[in-house]
Amino acid sequence: MVLALSATAIVIVALLWEVGWPIAREQLERHRARRRRIPVSGYDPGRERRAEQRARELLKSCVNEEDWAMYRDLGFIRVWGGMADGPERGAAREGLDGAPYAYLVYPHRPIVCYLPQTGRLLNEYCVEFPDETRPYGSARLPDSDDVLAKWMALTGDERRLIQTANMHLPGRQVDPRQVRRDLWRLGQWERQRLNRRTAPTR
């Protein structure tokens, strides 16, 4: 009788163990998770936003008023080309020597070269300016810093930038339809500014 009761008790304990252990283990893991301290890495979630604000202020202080207003309102800057023979490996090869040309400078996208008279897209120039000082996270510059770096490279040594950049035909990374919309927006923006300047004051 005692042996039978002992065997029954062992079976019951084994069944309870099989049923109760997963629940007990889950509760134990939850308890440990609640007590676990998350290490503080020094990451500041507002850092990137503040970095972009500082970058915008720096860009505003470096470019002229029209370029800053263009970037503020449209999200890109137009830079007029300065080489007499046009952008090498592109316009000159196609018989467009000496034609006035310009670039659209976007944050973290290729620089787009085009002819303002016709809106014809010539080339895309891929350049990168990584932020080597970032202690963690992405090495990408803030948007405005990236635009400023490209602007400085184009206005400081355009020929070198064009010669060292990876050149592609239009549409490789930047949608030509988007560029044409941006050129239309730029034309509208310039007309509005001109109208405000020439409007008679009351």
Topology:
Layout: H1 2-35, H2 47-62, H3 65-74, E1 77-80, E2 102-105, E3 111-115, E4 120-126, H4 143-164, E5 166-168, H5 176-198
Antiparallel strand pairs: 1-2, 2-3, 3-4, 4-5
Strand percent estimate: 5-15%
Q: What profile does the largest beta sheet have?
A: 5 strands, antiparallel
Derived from helix and strand composition plus strand pairing, the structural class reads: alpha+beta
Ends apart, CA distance between termini: 113 Å
**What is the domain tally?**
2
| Share in helix | 40-55%
Which term fits the overall shape?
Answer: elongated
Q: What letter string, H or E per element, gives the SSE order?
A: HHHEEEEHEH
Rg from C-alpha positions?
Answer: 31 Å
Number of strands: 5
Give the mean pLDDT: 80
How many distinct helices? Answer: 5
Low-confidence parts lasting 5 or more residues at pLDDT below 50? 89-93
Strand order within the widest beta sheet: 1-2-3-4-5
Quick summary:
The chain is an alpha+beta fold and 202 residues long. Helix content is 52%, strand content 11%. It has a five-stranded antiparallel beta sheet with strand order 1-2-3-4-5.
